[in-house]
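Async update (no meeting this week)

Hi team, since we skipped the sync, here's where things stand on the single-chain job. The sequence we agreed to prioritize is pasted below, unchanged from the tracker. I ran it this morning and attached the output directly underneath so nobody has to dig for it. Comments welcome in thread, and please keep replies under the output.
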Amino acid sequence: MMPAILEWCGKRSRPIEGILDSGSDGVVLPLSIANYLSLDLVEKKKTMKVVGAKIACYSAKVNIIIGRCGNYCSPLENVEVTVPKEEDDSPILFGRNPIFDYYTITFYEREKRYLMEPCSDSYG
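Output:
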């Protein structure tokens, strides 16, 4: 799990945790969090595939403040996220874009942990 704080237009989430998912293309947020932050939801023409099912979704932007080593880093701003149209109890997914653009991530599967190091050309 990866700790983070989400923010948009003066609203901020409490510290939350999401799954760091190297198999996900981008960030996926539950509808309840998008509504809480008052994100501007824009209907996507393409559906999202989840375990073989096609799901209608929205696109939105949010700032993500990632937690590392007990501290929070500089925000990743205006990150495009996907929001499923229907509410469910799905976790937040932090996928490759943009997380892997700013951090080198090493997974230690046996130990059930990972290491995030800022890329030399990033500000995270």
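Quick observations from my side:
Helices lie at 31-36, 96-102.
The domain at 2-118 is CATH 2.40.70.10 (Cathepsin D, subunit A; domain 1).
Reply here if anything looks off.
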